[in-house]
Glutamine--tRNA ligase (Heliorestis convoluta), 548 residues
Amino acid sequence: PKATTSNFIKNIIIEDLRTGKVDEVITRFPPEPNGYLHIGHAKSICLNFDLADDFSGKTNLRFDDTNPLKEDVEFVKSIQEDVAWLGYQWDGLFFASNYFEEMFNRAVLLIQKGKAYVCDLSAEEIRKTRGTLTEPGQESPYRNRSVEENLDLFMRMRQGEFGDGAKVLRAKIDMSSPNINMRDPVLYRIAHATHHNTGDSWCIYPMYDYAHPLGDAIEGVTHSICTLEFEDHRPLYDWVIRECEMEAQPHQYEFARLNLTQTVMSKRKLKQLVDEKVVDGWDDPRMPTISGLRRRGFTPEAIRNFAREIGVAKSNSVVDVKMLEHFIREDLKLKAPRTMAVLRPLKVVITNYPEGQIEMLDAENNPENLEMGHRQIPFSREIYIEQDDFMEKPPKKYFRLFPGNEVRLKHAYFIRCEEVIKDENGDVIELHCTYDPETKSGSGFTGRKVKGTIHWVEASQALPAEFRLYEPLLLDQEGEKDGSFLEQINPNSMEISAGFVEPTMKDSKAHDKFQFFRHGYFNVDPKDTREDRLVFNHIVSLKSSFVI
Ligand code: ATP
Ligand code: MG
Ligand code: MG
């Protein structure tokens, strides 16, 4: 065992191998292609692939595509991209829809055995007669149709003779079972709809509870891992495998799904955000989708380490989103060059610096990783600093620039604020400062100390850049709640500013990542960056109080 730490599913596998119940481990990741994958799916992906890998087993990517109305090839494509980007290579690439013929034949077998029947009740009537936890269900008046009649009707359902909802195929199990899932569940429904894979060849489609166990059995999956809400479905899963007389004997195991604070984690709601243009597509950097996290600047390593750290449990809980942020910081700490960016520029003229002169200053690329070497950054009479780093009337303990005060410019000199230039509205538009050549960084100057160090960018060579700063999409701390979901959306989840970065970043490419001095980690946006203007997505700030 390599990648994963101990967990209850792993212990089951160890035991199954020891007793000879299985002789190899086959898992699957089974998304429905009805949306993009999110960070919750990443937990399931890591779990399935890592577990199989621990035992030199196999993992299939299987599209559970049994609902033609919501599925699309766009999603099939994005899901493959995301799984591969996370760093996993599937053994088999399968579609549940490629098993439709076999599933149909197994349904015919159920009918022949008297274990399934065609029912004419509407969806509403079926729901009403299903009973409750305390009351048994009522048997359908169609429950005792003969095998011949059922075979004939099921065939005619397939041939398209009946409209949507006119008939369903139901398992004949037990209307008084304490488990409502066992009260003659629907196995097939009619839907005259074009399927992304099978086109118009079918107008009846198997339900998840029927298709899923059969898909697992057909592929020889040994350990079928799903989320806790399916625990009550397990008896039906076993019933389908047994009554359809499948040769392979997969078993279902349930684990707690991932919930994150301040994060929407349902495909249906994420789709609503996309469709109603609350966000700019599935890969908007504010989205908790894998593609959104990628565009934001998260790395596969950070997501995998996060998934491993949260582990698998048997009870639901909400994980603090700060923990995910902790892992991206950890991953980028030694990898990302530390450069300077001014997000909201204020011009500074250094009046005693020679006009027209540009000198190159030495800057370390990453003091925590000396192998990243050094770079040369220009310095001259005109620079930009951050608007926030100047205050005309500073409060106590403000150690940055104010009239008469001296600060250190990172990698450069001490400067002192001599004069404040304002426009006709009284807004500060420029500062006039003086510098002290004795204080050059690296010169060993010890004559006097200053309390503040600020960052800057030389004005004539500065590269214009756009910075996108994010806040959580949800206002609430506790993750998704019931009620009107769109009302919980944070109206200020993105703030855009226009500023500058140092010229050393001229050849930055999509997805290059930097730590901007004092601002935190940023990713070069892969969609909106143009040759004359870099766009940076804020990944995460520098510090957090979060400890694992
Ligand atoms: P959603 O409820 O967000 O629509 P889903 O469960 O319907 O998700 P599927 O495409 O059916 O999405 O999921 C594929 C796999 O990912 C399933 O095995 C499912 O259990 C797992 N999965 C989905 N959401 C989570 C989550 N939040 N945490 C862990 N696993 C998840
Ligand atoms: Mg779903
Ligand atoms: Mg699902």
Summary: The pocket of adenosine-5'-triphosphate (ligand 1) is lined by residues 30-32, 40-41, 43-44, 226-227, 257-258, 265-268 (CB under 6 Å). The longest strand covers residues 414-422. The first helix runs from residue 8 to 19.
